[in-house]
Amino acid sequence: MTLRIDNINSNVLRFCREQIGLDLETVKAIIPKIELIEVGSHFPTLNQLDTLAKLYNVPRWVFISETIPEEYQFDKTVPAFRQFKKNNADIFNEPKVRGLVAKVERLRELIIDFKSDEGEKFVEFDGPVISEKTPPEIAAKAIRNWLGTSKNLEFKNWRKLLEEKGIFIFLTSKYIEWSHIEREILRGLAVYHPILPIIIINDSDSKKAQSFTLFHELCHLLKKENAINNWEYFYNNIEKWCDDVSGNFLMPCDEMKRSFSELSDTKELWKLAQKFHVSSYAYLVRCKRLDLIDQKTYEHFENLLTNEYKEIQRKLKESNVKIARNRSSEILKQYGAIYTTTVFQAYYNQEIGLNKLTKLLNVKNPSHVFEMERRL
For the chain, how far is it from start to end, CA to CA, in angstroms? Predict the structure, then answer.
């Protein structure tokens, strides 16, 4: 006989669904009798409660509470929820985005809790003071000085430098799991906190495109603001300024002018972009901004890049080649150094056991945990 849970608070259950932005029809595709469950005329199984807990980003015990615990009222506990709902409603109405923000905020809280238990004091995030009134070239130089490098680095190296500055950088998954979001919905996201601010990057983008998004989001953090970026939806003066700073940072004007040569084809464009570890498109836009190419040349290469991208996507869709996955590497890349080293330290300090560690790292096989430990 299937065990069913008969003490569900239907008001709490409905609240959890609505705050994450899911409608009944969407949930019904997964839990067909959700409508009856919400009115108390049908009792869910334990497995169904686990499924709903994952969908709504709350622990299942919340559903049997008399009232929704304040810590799981995201409008109260996640300041970004309020701002995103007000200023970025078009994107934030997407349940995947709401769920991602809620979950990554929870990961941030875990980091703080574990480090506090270890007696570690947090240093307040202290980047260069810039605003949209700061000329992009000046802002880019200030960030370079803050990071202490004049080199052009790859994404993983930029990420490491920013993590060392106390920024929690999370990458969504390329694969269909809880953090996967299509690039068309979200490119990047910034959540400001005085301690351990957050940057989320969509890993569906190329690493070179991710570098551009990374510094775009950093600009928002330096302005002490939250921001969701999907350039298909809106592109105001602040977004343009963040783009200009990111472009100036990754492709400094003097270096661009020294290394530039006439563009003959997309292969030449790609080679020039490689010098700065940026995408061909970012390099092309920067060339236009610096008047190294005219509008006609820009449009010509933009069309070529668009067609090449479409052709690559078509071939990938038609091919049934399955890419081998390395779960350990995926998790380390996705969660980043700050989170993974923190939960491993809690494990070494015997604050958590192996079972809890595997759950916090979102893996089922303990062998993946040991492989991650080796890689750290």
Answer: 46
Answer yes or no: is pLDDT of 88 > 80.
no
Report the distance separating Cα 148 and Cα 140, nearest Å.
12
**Nearest of 139, 280, 284 to residue 215 by alpha carbon:** 139
Fold of 1-63: 434 Repressor (Amino-terminal Domain) (1.10.260)
CB 34 within 8 A of CB 24: yes
**What is the pLDDT, as a whole number, of residue 232?**
56
Question: Is 1 a residue whose pLDDT tops 80?
Answer: no
219-245 burial code (b ≥16 CB/10 A, e <16): bbbbbeebbbbbeeeeeeeebebbbbb
> What's the pLDDT tens digit per position in 199-231?
999 998 888 899 999 999 999 999 999 998 875
pTM of the model: 0.90
Nearest to 304 by CA among 328, 324, 284: 284
